[in-house]
Structure formats: C-alpha cells, structure tokens
Design brief:
Chain lengths: ~110, ~110
C-alpha cells in the first residue's frame, strides 16, 4: 500500500528565505507520480508541482522546486524567496497511474514571518 | 469563469437529514473525484468517475452515493447524516492522462451536522 509521510507538522521561515518541506513516501510500484498542493487559510486546494518517477531532472515551477531522491523515496518541496502569501498548509501526494487515486500526506503548516 | 464549482459552499443540517452537494467542471476533463477533509486536515478519497463510470469507490458508508449524469457533473448525495459526517468535501477533476497536470479542486463544501 502507498503511504506519504510529512514529519513537520509546522514550520516557520523568515520572509525572503528559502524553506524545505519534507516528504517521504512508500510504494512498491515502479511507476508513480508525486505532487505538491497548497491550501491557504481560505481553504482552496492549489496544485503546485509534479514529479514523475521516471523523470531524471527535478521538477521546477517558478519559486517551487521538487528535490526528488528516488532511492531515498523522498520528494521534498523547496520554496525559494518566501513571501507572506506562502503561509499555508502544504500537502505532498502521490498516485500510481493516471486513473488511480491520489493519496495525500498529513500536511505541513508553513508560516512566513515578516 | 470558475473551473470546478461546488454548491453549496456551506451546509448546516440536523442529524438524520438527507443532503446533496453538486459539482460541475467546465475544463473538459474526463475524470472527477470526491475527497473528504476531516477536522485534522487529512484528505481522503471517496469516489472517482471517469466519463460517467465509477472507477474508484473507497470504503465509504452506503449512505454516501455519488451520481454522474455526464462527464462534467459529479454530485454527492448523503442519506441519514451523522455527526461524524461533518467535514469539508472537495470535488476535483483531472484529464484522463493526468501526468503532470494535477487535480483542479473546487472550493469545497463545509458540511456541519448538528
């Protein structure tokens, strides 16, 4: 069975600093996808970034990058130059195939301090 | 122009009542989902439909029944509501070949059972 672990329930970061949110996963599948989502206090879920298990390069989307270490089964999210608007809950997620369900980790609450 | 719209946004009802939540997407996606987010922010999939066909049905009480009249709509009907059904329910959609697309979520329906 697949499982996502996010060991940091809460994180603080100074504005303009970089921050890494940890995510480890457990799966016996060879092909899978990894995702990160952001949930601000307003409640909506926002897709941030995707990494395929066969992608050799780490995914990047603007200030977001995914540090993918396949052998360690980790998919950490790096946010560069943190902004106050980055304060939110961040969820790591994974799925086996396009049709398969996406399972979510428990989330990390990030607070950006001015 | 809202991509995935859910109604209602808030729903307060008494135990034992029957209620429905509606979801519509205008993205042309083939697959739609219902997720439940509990009070600890944990997200769990409930159902998934692909082109009106049920493809994922997690261990959910029979009181929950999804209905997809067409691929743009996925409704959730809940019978005999219980206190434990209180949660935020998210509808989401994705294209068939999800790959690096991620889900597009609705804004959520906060259900409170009193």
């Amino acid at each position: 069975a697949q499982k996502i672990t996010q060991t940091q329930p809460g994180m603080f970061v100074q504005e303009k600093e970089a921050v890494t949110l940890d995510c480890t996963y457990d799966t016996s599948d060879q092909s899978y996808g990894l995702f990160w989502y952001k949930q601000p206090s307003s409640g909506e879920m926002i897709f941030l970034i995707y990494q395929g298990s066969y992608d050799e390069q780490n995914a990047t989307e603007g200030r977001y990058s995914l540090n993918f270490q396949k052998a360690r089964k980790s998919a950490n999210l790096v946010i560069s130059a943190s902004q106050l608007g980055d304060s939110a809950m961040y969820f790591c997620a994974m799925s086996k195939t396009s049709y398969d369900k996406v399972i979510f980790g428990p989330g990390t609450s990030l607070s950006v301090i001015p | 122009d809202t991509a995935v719209s859910q109604t209602p946004k808030y729903l307060v009802t008494q135990m034992g009542n029957d209620k429905s939540i509606k979801c519509e997407q205008n993205l042309g996606h083939d697959t739609m989902y219902w997720y439940k987010q509990d009070s600890k922010k944990f997200l769990k999939i409930m159902f998934s439909y692909n082109n009106k066909e049920l493809i994922i049905n997690e261990t959910v009480p029979n009181r929950f029944s999804p209905k997809s009249p067409d691929k743009a709509h996925l409704n959730l009907h809940i019978n005999s509501l219980e206190l434990g059904d209180s949660a935020v329910y998210f509808c989401a959609s994705s294209p068939t070949d999800r790959a690096n697309y991620g889900y597009t979520f609705g804004s959520g329906t906060r259900l409170t059972v009193v």
